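Progress report, Aim 2. The chain analyzed during this reporting quarter is listed below.
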Amino acid sequence: MSRAARVEDLYSDSWYYSKSEKRIRNNRLRRQKIFRRQILLLGLSFSLILFIVLFIGASFMSDAQSDEFVPSYKYYTTITVHADDTLGSIAAAYYSDDNYSSVSDYLSEICSINSISDPDKLKAGEMLIIPYYSSEFK
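Predicted structure tokens for the chain:
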């Protein structure tokens, strides 16, 4: 065993330390422990502050509806076509500006639901399914 190894073994054994060396070593270990604890508390504090900021930000930016909001529900009804009815007159009775961008969009939806290729050729007695919106939940 070399001299350096023997010296290392000698100083690794705390029995050979003097009182001041033990005090210095204990103080160093205590400072390291305090420093680690401070780093841990700093990280936890930062995480908590970040969580609170994100939580408050998310609650202010929520997609909640206002108290004045009234939902509208889509329903379907079946009507019978009379001799003087046109698709435009039927659509005028059930059309809603709030739910469709134009009357032609509403007419195209009626045609697609009922598989109507030519809206001008409606026959009296024919049954049509018509969508409509209501604020009442049924």
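Residues 19-60 form the longest helix (42 residues). Residues 82 and 124 are 5 Å apart (CA to CA). These observations will guide the mutagenesis work planned for the next reporting period.
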